[in-house]
Amino acid sequence: MAVSEAAKGFTYSELRHYIVKRLQIAAPGKSMKQLLTTISNQDNVEQIVKELPQYKMILAKGSAGNGNKVKRKRHEKQDKDDDEEVEKETDDEVEKETEDEEDEEEDAMTMLKEELAIRGLTSKGNTYAFLVKRLIKSLRDED
Questions:
Q1: C-alpha to C-alpha distance for 34 and 15, rounded to whole angstroms
Q2: What pLDDT does residue 86 have?
C-alpha cells in the first residue's frame, strides 16, 4: 500500500500530529504533499503505512464523544503554536544564513578589487560580471 493511500481520510493536522509525535520530526512540512514526502523518506515506511489505518481508527474513536472536541481543539491550537515556533526558528536561521552570504559576497568583492589593483587596473564598478571580465582579460593578457 502506498503512503498516499494509507493517508487518505486524514486531515493535515491529524497527519502532522502523527509525524511530530510518533516519528518525532519537528518540522515535517507545510503542506499535505510535504507530509507525505516526509513519511516516504523514512526508513521504516512500511511500518508507518501499517500504523496509519490503526491511528485513524483511534482518532475516530476519540472524536466520538463531545469532550474530545475540546481536546482536539487544544491539540490543534498546540500544533499551530508549534508551527509558529518552528517557522520563527526557520526565519531566524534563514536571516543568519543571508547575513553570512552577504559577508562572503563582500569578502569576494574586496578580493576581486584587490586583484585588479595589483595588476594596475581600475576597480570601478560594483557588478561581479564587469570586474571578473576585467580580471580574466588581464590574466589572458599576462600569458
A1: 11
A2: 61
Q: What pLDDT, on a 0 to 100 scale, did the predictor assign at position 56?
A: 81
pLDDT for the residue 14: 85
Question: Are the C-beta atoms of residues 21 and 51 closer than 8 Å to each other?
Answer: no
3-state SS, the chain, equals CCHHHHCCCCCHHHHHHHHHHHCCCCCCCCCHHHHHHHHHCCCCHHHHHHHHHHHHHHHHHHCCCCHHHHHHHHHHHHHHHHHHHHHHHHHHHHHHHHHHHHHHHHHHHHHHHHHHHHCCCCCCCCCHHHHHHHHHHHHHHHC
CA distance 78 to 122: 59
Specify the pLDDT at position 126.
76
Kindly provide the b/e burial profile for residues 6-42, where b requires at least 16 CB atoms within 10 angstroms of the residue's own CB: bbeebeeebbbbbbbeeeebebbbeeeeebbebbeee
Per-residue pLDDT, 77: 60
For the chain, list residues with pLDDT below 70.
1, 62-97
